[in-house]
Amino acid sequence: MTERADRTTITERAARAGARVAHNRFRTGIDAETKSGKTDVVTAADHAAQREAIDVIRNAFPDDAIVGEEKDELKAVPESGAAWIIDPIDGTSNYVRENRVWGTVVAAVEDGDPIAATTAMPALEDTYIADEDGATRNGEPIATSDVDDPEAAIVAPAMWWAMDRRDEYARACEAVVRRFGDARRIGCAQALLASIADGSLEGAITNVETNPWDTVAGVTLIRRAGGRVTDLDGNRWRHDSVGLVASNGELHEELLEAANEIADA
């Protein structure tokens, strides 16, 4: 097995290990604490799941950098070397409300570029994996949709706008509902991006600066499934980009136009 293949294996092993911890505590009345806002929450399950995922990674690659949402891990992706990006429970707000749309996510990167990713959603019994051969859900290949009619497309105003930026949130929703057939808000960024990869949604737009644990794995899934992800200028999206436009590839220009309406006063 090559080292790159081994890293793919470890993304899956670590994500599944963290997901088991989180799933064992799901719907058990676990307490939540708020972080930056009243809907931005964290639980003991987040911390426990992250520790479990890190243990798996450290046993295989003890010297690699780790970027994680919780506690004292790095908060930015290193520009050089190997690193791992972990979100122990993406969709914690769903998790604490006993909504099944949440997941444990692990991505492996080299010199800032993703090489593999796993999104494990045990409450939905779905696991998505992206590697150099493509993207799968539960072991079966997936692909983005071929919808090219905006009026038939389902698109999400994505990520989270702070309370003092809700005018932008409103404009994002308006841009979507005026241009496309329907809108979705899932409450879990990685589940949203996985849904674009598997063809159940056509796209997502945001103008905010995103976190790597909310995006890198899902962006990798979309690209390996045949889709496209850019910044607001149409340039290839990176982990440090501001804004994110993800599509099935067929509707990307329409999504770019919609995304660039968000910040307009």
Describe the protein's architecture and organization.
This protein has 2 domains: 3-141, Fructose-1,6-Bisphosphatase, Chain A, domain 1; 150-259, D-Maltodextrin-Binding Protein, domain 2, CATH 3.40.190. The protein contains 7 helices and 14 strands. The longest helix is centred in the N-terminal third of the chain and has 23 residues, at 3-25. A hairpin with a 2-residue loop joins strand 1 (32-37) and strand 2 (40-43). Helix 1 packs antiparallel against helix 2 and helix 4 (166-179) runs antiparallel to helix 7. It is 34% helix and 28% strand.
Short summary of the structure?
The chain has 265 residues and is of the alpha+beta class. The chain has two domains: 3-141, Fructose-1,6-Bisphosphatase, subunit A, domain 1 (Fructose-1,6-Bisphosphatase, Chain A, domain 1), CATH 3.30.540.10; 150-259, D-Maltodextrin-Binding Protein, domain 2, CATH 3.40.190.80. It is built from seven helices and 14 strands.
Task: Name a few traits of the molecule.
alpha+beta; Fructose-1,6-Bisphosphatase, Chain A, domain 1; D-Maltodextrin-Binding Protein, domain 2; 7-stranded mixed β-sheet; 5-stranded mixed β-sheet; 28% strand
Ordered list of secondary-structure elements with their pairings:
Blueprint: H1 3-25, E1 32-37, E2 40-43, H2 44-60, E3 65-68, E4 82-90, H3 92-96, E5 103-110, E6 113-121, E7 126-131, E8 134-137, E9 140-141, E10 154-157, H4 166-179, E11 182-183, H5 189-197, E12 203-209, H6 212-224, E13 228-230, E14 242-247, H7 252-259
Helix pairs in contact: 1-2, 4-7, 5-6
